[in-house]
Amino acid sequence: MEQKEQMIFPSNDPWEPYTDIKQFGEARLTNIEITTTHLCNMRCEHCAVGYSLLKKDPDAFSAERIIQSLDDVEHLRTFSITGGEPMMSVKSIQNHVLPLLQYAKSRGAKTQINSNLTMPFERYEWILPYLDVLHISHNYGSADDFAEIGFAVMDKKPSAEKRKALFQTMVENSRRLAAKGMMISAETMINSRTLPHLESIHDQIVQMQAARHEVHPMYPTNFADHLPVASLDDIRSGIHRLLDHKDPDMWVLFGTLPFYPCNDDAADQALIERLFNEQNVTVRNDPDGQSRVNINIFSGDIHVTDFTAEGQLGNIETDSLEGAFRKWRDSKTAQALNCHCPAAECLGPNLLVKQAYYPDTDFTKRKAKVTKP
Ligand code: SF4
């Protein structure tokens, strides 16, 4: 197979919702995420959808019906497939993953799939021509970590040997795909469990020949209430440690950070200043609620990930995706978070961050004190 040409780099991140502000002067629906399965061969302790995993997927809307709804999205810049493990069922790959990726590519969108990378290599080869980013969760500094964390909430775990063998498959798949030019983006969640090991986790990601290390603090949600949330001081110092340690060639992308350019705290301002000025480091505004909605192919439900009651926006049988997005943007919840500081290219806080750390702050009355160069 031909070597893929990488078109995504720190100064060109198509998933950054600020791109819409630059292009259209306002938030737009440019980013669609589709949940294609509730099956997974793992049960990670940090998994955002672990509670919704099933042993058998229900009947789904056809790819053709979903594509009909996607046709309504005027500017489709980015398209992501998530699960469960979207590469686990060959039937699901053939019926949904492949046709949806092919459709998104034909629309000129950049595409991503979230996989644990433990599936047979040839399955990834099937989708490679239509894929720009292969996204994995990576919170492990070693095979032992993987065997423990990756199956933490599974009742009947495979043997430790089998679990460690899957770690080797993941590492091997990552290297082989990277050698073919696939962009591997590995995401680490900051919580009190990963914080002491951020450096070794980063080193592992470098060894897997990933192109990007994504780092997101973990917030209190129903899926991870057993994992203690780290304090702001600990998150801040962990990020400084990672920046001190990072491989200079590795792109490190921070998302849903709990530190804002309008914060008065001198330590927060110093950190943001550093993040803005480090080479190969970016801070992404959260696409959820800014440019993205999610479709579940089984229920047809359209929603904004991470947003509870008001995040349920309708169903593809009765609602258009553009209409659902407008409904969200007009909602009281979205309006309360709707601030914009051009000096810092900041689009305001994520709802979970605000609830966790800034419950009484009205961000719409604040202004950035740190400027993006
Ligand atoms: S956009 Fe909102 S959160 Fe961001 S710096 Fe401005 S006021 Fe603060």
TrEMBL record:
Keyword Membrane: no
InterPro entries xrefs: Aldolase_TIM (IPR013785), rSAM (IPR007197), rSAM_sf (IPR058240), rSAM_YfkAB (IPR031004), YfkB (IPR014866)
UniProt GO MF annotations: 4 iron, 4 sulfur cluster binding; catalytic activity; metal ion binding
Entry-linked PROSITE patterns: RADICAL_SAM
Keyword Cell membrane set for record: no
Domain of life (superkingdom): Bacteria
CDD domains: Radical_SAM
Keyword list, A-Z: 4Fe-4S, Iron, Iron-sulfur, Metal-binding, S-adenosyl-L-methionine
Chain ranges of the Radical SAM core domain: 24-253
Name this polypeptide is given: Radical SAM/CxCxxxxC motif protein YfkAB
Organism of provenance: Salisediminibacterium halotolerans
Lineage: Bacteria, Bacillati, Bacillota, Bacilli, Bacillales
